[in-house]
Design a protein that fits this description.
Strand content of chain B: over 45%
Oligomer: heterodimer
Largest sheet of chain B: 7 strands, mixed
Distance between the termini of chain A: 41 Å
Distance between the termini of chain B: 33 Å
Helix content of chain B: under 10%
Structural class of chain A: mainly beta
Radius of gyration of chain A: 13 Å
Strand content of chain A: over 45%
Largest interface: A-B, 24 and 28 residues
Low-confidence stretches of chain B: none
Shape of chain A: globular
Mean pLDDT of chain A: 94
Mean pLDDT of chain B: 91
Number of helices of chain B: 0
Chain lengths: 111, 118
């Protein structure tokens, strides 16, 4: 069964304290892996798409990486405004649209 | 605002009433996806529509739930005879073409409708 697991469920960091969020997946093939950010009361906001192992994408303090089994979202020197829930979604090889979603990691950055 | 627009943002219904949730996709997007989200859970796919066509409704309960995306106007998710278990956040997303075709087009989301059943 296709599955996406995110860890940890919640992460509290001090401002400036770098860390990584994990998204591990078991799917039949991989057409793409997507990272989104979701603020309370809002919809998911697209961050990155990764398509193949070894690929990396960066945006400000965020960098996403991909292996054959998992993806990491690295957060460098985070600020309080980076606090949000980060969602990972996978598009399996046998689907053109039906994303499989993880439950998310709730990130809290304390000033 | 050229983003995905959902309304209402909050909807309260009593058991047995009908709920209608609306979604206007981003300009130029012809593919619409509806999701349901419960607290602490991932998004669950419900239905995928193109203009005037339901492509995949495998994630939507066969009873009481229906969806449409007419030629003119927004996409509608309709829940008849609501029950307490229907309480959730319902999100709509759109894309210019199917995610997974040879492009980098992700799904873009609205801010959802929070449905509460009394």
């Amino acid at each position: 069964e296709d599955q996406v697991t995110q860890s940890p469920e919640a992460l509290r960091l001090q401002e400036g304290e770098s860390s990584s969020l994990n998204c591990s997946y078991t799917v039949s093939g991989l057409r793409g892996l997507f990272w989104y950010r979701q603020d309370p009361g809002k919809g998911p906001e697209f961050l990155f798409t990764l398509y193949s192992a070894g690929e990396e994408k960066e945006k400000e303090r965020l960098k996403a990486t991909l292996t054959k089994k998992e993806s990491f979202l690295h957060i460098t020197a985070p600020k309080p405004e980076d606090s949000a829930t980060y969602l990972c979604a996978v598009l399996p090889g046998d689907s053109n649209y039906q994303l499989i979603w993880g439950a998310g990691t709730k990130l809290i950055i304390k000033p | 605002n050229a983003g995905v627009m959902q309304n209402p943002r909050h909807l309260v219904r009593r058991r047995g009433q009908e709920a209608r949730l609306r979604c206007s996709p981003m300009k130029g997007h012809s593919h619409v996806y509806w999701y349901r989200q419960l607290p602490e859970e991932g998004l669950k796919f419900m239905v995928y529509l193109q203009k005037e066509n339901i492509i995949d409704e495998s994630g939507m309960p066969k009873e009481r739930f229906s969806a449409e995306f007419p030629k003119e106007g927004p996409s509608i998710l309709r829940i008849q005879q609501v029950v307490r278990g229907d309480s959730a956040a319902y999100f709509c997303a759109s894309s210019p073409r199917r995610v997974g075709t040879n492009s980098n087009q992700p799904q873009h989301f609205g801010d959802g409708t929070r449905l509460s059943i009394l």
